[in-house]
Amino acid sequence: MSPQSELLIAASATARPVRIVKAGAALEERIAAWAEANGFTGKTGQLLVVPTADGAPEQALFGAGEAFDPMTARGLPTRLPAGDWRLEGVEGEAAHLAALAFALGGYLFDRYKARPERGRARLVAPDGLDLTATLNIAAACALTREMVDTPAADMGPLQLETIAREIAEGAGASLTVTTGDALLEENYPAVHAVGRAAAPHRAPRVLEIGWNLDKADRPLVALVGKGVVFDTGGLDLKGAAGMRNMKKDMGGAAHALALGRLIMQAGLPVRLVVLVAAVENAVSADAFRPGDILNSRKGLTIEIGNTDAEGRLILADVLTRAGEHQPDLTLDFATLTGAARIALGPELPPLYTDDDALAEGVLNAGRAVGDPLWRMPLWAGYRASLDSEIADVRNDSAAWAQAGSVTAALFLQKFAPTTGSWAHMDVFAWNPRARPGWPEGGEAQAIRACFRYLSDKFVK
């Protein structure tokens, strides 16, 4: 994977312009003739390289349509000829966001496949851009995508622990790891139950990063991530198609770790706890079963109706642990339900919270940085679908409720911290179709929105 720092540079004496051109905009006679000859109309995302007399790239025209969406600049790094470029025709916040988009669009997962050597297109940072902060954001998204793209054989619970350790050490933070049967001793029974069927070297574990915890005057933010490194479905085995991309089921953990690193790099004036439950939902003689009753850290018993609804089980324990810190704000990330995709598709993650101000703040931040979410209801009428005759709650909602993403969020709400505010994001963490700037594979969703929200909220 190419470092993000190779894509954005501070200055270049040879940078050629990428001109942002609205639909129907007037161009100089020579450029207009070239545009007409090549069918360039300024349509959103159109790119046309204008050559010099000897055929070398002189400039590029990039279509903005009726209004320029800076996120479309994600398509530029893989389409522009190699060399240095600068944006022309866009300024201020839009230019800064386009530069970030450029860095995001240059992501390439090349761990297992050699790529032909070729020059890279690089973008000169627009005036006023905080280059370090922008590169940190791009790197956080790249870390998330790389973790999701890495196959489960090379991204197991131990590898998640290793990444968490590197992040903690880099920030001078603490890391506590609870592994295997110690999970029972330390009261993480649901995490243990879900992960105990895996091979010993892939034993389940809870990772807890703590940063600035001695600064009691600062608000405490808790980030919680679902780290199911591979989900077979357990004894309720998934079909082949459903299992194919389950390496991405640790996407929530990747989001929480990357956002945590970003918060610490930025030095936000908060105390921070990052909690990840890292497990493999495997099949063996020791796998938990449909009909089992699990204990949880909170003390609520859980009837297992379906072993493929395992993510909410491990989140129950780590959300409870987050609550023990009495956080002012808790954000959890999980690739939790297929129902979220049915409701909103792969590009628009649902946001669940009962705090209207938090919802408005995160949604507005997402709009500002081109990282959209959509608020979904914690509909009280569906809580009864989680009732069990023989336990405190069931992990699979009754069929009559139908709204699987909503009922999953309602399940998590039972375990969420009761201090401060809580929000749950049911991210997909995946691009199912390839297009310039958005290769098929791992994707970071809601990280930039949440980081902007936190920065706006806590940096006065």
Automatic annotation (TrEMBL):
Family: Belongs to the peptidase M17 family.
Domain Cytosol aminopeptidase: 306-313
Organism expressing this protein natively: Brevundimonas vancanneytii
UniProt GO cellular component terms: cytoplasm
GO molecular-function term, one example from the UniProt record: manganese ion binding
The protein's enzyme class: hydrolase
Matches recorded under InterPro entries: Leucine_aapep/pepB, Macro_dom-like, Peptidase_M17_C, Peptidase_M17_N_1
Signal peptide boundaries: none
The entry's keywords: Aminopeptidase, Hydrolase, Manganese, Protease
CDD domains the UniProt entry points to: Peptidase_M17
Name the UniProt record assigns to this protein: Probable cytosol aminopeptidase
GO BP terms, alphabetized: proteolysis
This protein's record includes keyword Metal-binding: no
EC number: 3.4.11.1
Domain of life from the UniProt record: Bacteria
